[in-house]
From TrEMBL:
Protein name in the entry: Imidazolonepropionase
Job of this protein: Catalyzes the hydrolytic cleavage of the carbon-nitrogen bond in imidazolone-5-propanoate to yield N-formimidoyl-L-glutamate. It is the third step in the universal histidine degradation pathway.
NCBIfam families: hutI
Organism ancestry: Bacteria, Pseudomonadati, Balneolota, Balneolia, Balneolales
GO molecular function, one term: iron ion binding
Residues the record lists as binding 4-imidazolone-5-propanoate: R80, Y143, H176, Q244, S320
InterPro entries membership: Amidohydro-rel, HutI, Metal-dep_hydrolase_composite, Metal_Hydrolase
Enzyme Commission code(s) on record: 3.5.2.7
Organism: Rhodohalobacter barkolensis
Entry note: cofactor: Binds 1 zinc or iron ion per subunit.
């Protein structure tokens, strides 16, 4: 029964008290058994029975829950550095997509790659992601856009989840965009998603969520509604890429279909905010996509003040967010999303796990949760975000085992 002691401040981030309440404990202690947290509290109140247990020393540093990246596109073929240059030279993300680049260029590269090649690449990336203290990750398909290629991506995630200690959650994103062979036949592609892909994904138990890119350039509200219904029949919970480039009623649809989260939201309407708050849909901000596509940042302050819980994620993908630096996304959410460091910490821990329906399992430091926590070399949460230099993780624990 290991014990972590000598913690300056333990930010437990339990799901209570709103976005800003991270429940700090001065001179905290964590006791765990195997993979699970057994006791959390002040060092002065540590029960006698735990006192002689093997202890780890946090060196007087702060401790936070393991970070949760609740929105990534981890598995893909190729990269798109050429588009990065084009955007800097003035071409827009949408413009590049319309000319056959963007998502479709990654679809081509992903189709050309074998499952093993994709696996090796994703596994390498995941190792690097872990080093920052990310202990849970959500991963989407959406670069296959054919039955076999979507399954190929999702099988990569299944294999990874069997090999890695990181908590993994998979999402089917067959409705990411219309593939070239269905350019003149949208309905044909949507039928394929509904009648072939969703049943096959469910049959192989390859995903838990069904995500859709709801956008003028991708799928309409009505198309999305139909796909979500089919997904729900097969046990897939809705999630959305919504209101990213235009305000198209995506947030309202998220509330209507009972989505776990609506992500992006830069162009969300006031009505959308109201409905998400009422239906407890988590809003996921993805500031790295704004950074890389020169688009406005989501004003998260507005959402939080209206009662929406906001999570922060990377959106890691080869186009709009080619970095997996979650702490950077957090810092940008402070500066551009107008959330305090404490609010952002809650957004990258317990609220991020709620966005992937894992709030009961991890994302906070409390009895019964997975023993996932990080020792951070910073004085307090404000100083941590202010003097940005990555996660500043000294070491941590994931499912009770030491990492780094
Ligand atoms: O979340 N918005 C749609 N999908 C991704 C972008 C994917 C890509 O550019 O390859 C996103 O930003
Ligand atoms: Fe995304």
């Amino acid at each position: 029964m290991p014990v972590l002691k000598n913690i300056s401040t333990l930010y437990t981030c339990i799901d209570d008290g709103g976005q800003a309440e991270i429940h700090p404990i001065k001179n905290g202690v964590i006791v765990w058994i195997g993979e699970t947290i057994e006791w959390v509290g002040r060092e002065s109140e540590l029960p006698e029975k735990y006192q002689s247990e093997k202890s780890f020393d946090a060196g007087g540093k702060m401790v936070i829950p393991g970070l949760v990246d609740c929105h990534t596109h981890l598995c893909f073929g190729g990269w798109r550095a050429d588009e990065f240059e084009m955007r800097i030279q003035g071409r827009s993300y949408l413009d590049i997509a319309k000319a056959g680049g963007g998502i479709l260029s990654t679809v081509k590269a992903t189709r050309e790659a074998s499952e093993d090649e994709l696996y090796e690449k994703a596994a390498g990336l995941l190792k690097e992601i872990q080093k920052q203290g990310v202990t849970a990750i959500e991963c989407k398909s959406g670069y296959g856009l054919s039955l076999e290629d979507e399954l190929k991506q999702l099988r990569v995630y299944k294999r990874l989840s069997e090999e890695t200690v990181v908590h993994m959650v998979s999402t089917f994103l067959g409705a990411h965009t219309i593939p070239p062979e269905f350019k003149e036949n949208r309905k044909g592609y949507i039928d394929l998603v509904i009648n072939k892909m969703i049943p096959a994904v469910a049959q192989e138990n390859l995903a838990e969520f069904c995500d859709i890119f709801v956008e003028e350039s991708a799928f309409t509200i009505d198309e999305a509604r139909t796909i979500f219904e089919a997904g729900k029949k097969h046990g897939l919970t809705p999630k959305l890429h919504a209101d990213q480039l235009s305000s198209g009623g995506g947030a309202e649809l998220a509330a209507e279909v009972g989505a776990a989260s609506a992500d992006h939201l830069e162009q969300i309407s006031d009505e959308g905010i109201k409905q998400m708050a009422e239906k407890h849909v988590v809003g996921v901000t993805l500031p790295l996509a704004s950074l890389y596509t020169q688009q406005p940042y989501l004003n998260c302050r507005n959402l939080v003040d209206s009662g929406v819980e906001v999570a922060v994620a990377t959106d890691f993908n080869p186009g709009s967010a080619p970095t997996f630096d979650l702490p950077l996304a957090m810092m940008l959410t402070c500066n551009h999303g107008r959330l305090t460091p404490a609010e952002v910490l809650k957004g990258a821990t317990i609220y991020a796990s709620k966005a992937i329906n894992r709030g009961e399992q991890f994302g906070s430091i409390e009895t019964g949760k997975s023993a996932d926590f990080l020792v951070i070399d910073a004085d307090n949460v404000n100083e941590w975000m202010y003097h940005y230099k990555g996660s500043r993780m000294e070491f941590g624990f994931l499912k009770g085992k030491q990492i780094n």
